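User: Design a sequence. Structure:
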């Protein structure tokens, strides 16, 4: 690991700069990011499509568009809620790959799989069970997304123990330390990303709808095509914001912990140690 030779300049960035940088990261690692995202999202997409009745729509007769508006709105809402709830689990392979790709010369599929298995108990407890309990209350349901946005990265990349009787840093203590001092900034970033993400979903959906109309001359969308287009738009947006969230996590650590100086000092120390041996 070459601490002073990373793909990204280690410095503070604002959220718009991070969004722009995310596009460059996606372009730079397009193929492996696509593969890791598909590995993470495909099981959840198939489950979502099944639960929403997508496989039952093949060959069904459709009613007029006007009478389908309630169905389409409800299905669109369900897809978004499902994706938001399971996005942390779907993001696991991509997050682990980014953690290696940006700081390690050659990411390893075996290491990604091993790290995923090691982190799985905490992921299931904190990202699935805890979020499910919080969904009972509409108000507290948004707490993990606003108050603990980088819990995934803490679990996967820092790998602190969940419980410890000594003074060793635990996952929840680390999450509180990282997030508590930046709550105002995190809230502002969440609101901006939520607005941008909503617009991105709509734009992607309309782009696919218009492309289909241009190619077929048919403006109507069947239930199945509507559901597929909406799912693709939502999960594509999730993919983009997985990268955005990862870079925001790095930015918060840079601001809180002074990574720019620390990495240079560690790299210089490693070089000096190598010369003394």
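Assistant: Done.
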């Amino acid at each position: 690991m070459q601490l002073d030779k990373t793909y990204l300049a280690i410095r503070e960035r604002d959220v718009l700069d991070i969004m722009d940088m995310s596009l460059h990261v996606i372009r730079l690692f397009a193929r492996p990011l696509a593969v890791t995202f598909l590995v993470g999202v495909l099981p959840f997409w198939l489950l979502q499509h099944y639960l929403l009745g997508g496989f039952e729509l093949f060959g069904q007769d459709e009613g007029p568009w006007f009478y389908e508006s309630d169905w389409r709105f409800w299905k669109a809402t369900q897809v978004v809620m499902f994706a938001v709830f399971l996005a942390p689990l779907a993001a696991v392979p991509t997050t682990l790959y980014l953690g290696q790709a940006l700081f390690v010369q050659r990411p390893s599929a075996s290491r990604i799989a091993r790290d995923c298995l090691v982190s799985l108990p905490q992921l299931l407890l904190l990202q699935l069970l805890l979020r499910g309990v919080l969904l009972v209350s509409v108000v507290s349901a948004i707490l993990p997304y606003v108050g603990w946005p980088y819990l995934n990265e803490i679990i996967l990349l820092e790998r602190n123990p969940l419980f410890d009787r000594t003074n060793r840093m635990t996952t929840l203590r680390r999450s509180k330390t990282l997030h508590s001092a930046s709550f105002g900034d995190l809230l502002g970033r969440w609101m901006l990303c939520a607005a941008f993400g909503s617009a991105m979903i709509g734009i992607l959906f309309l782009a696919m709808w218009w492309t289909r109309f241009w190619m077929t001359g048919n403006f109507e969308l069947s239930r199945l095509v509507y559901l597929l287009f909406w799912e693709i738009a939502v999960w594509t947006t999730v993919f983009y914001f997985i990268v955005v969230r990862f870079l925001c996590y790095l930015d918060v650590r840079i601001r809180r912990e002074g990574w720019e100086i620390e990495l240079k000092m560690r790299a210089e120390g490693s070089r000096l140690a190598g010369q003394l041996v």
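The longest helix spans residues 223-257. The chain has one domain: 15-276.
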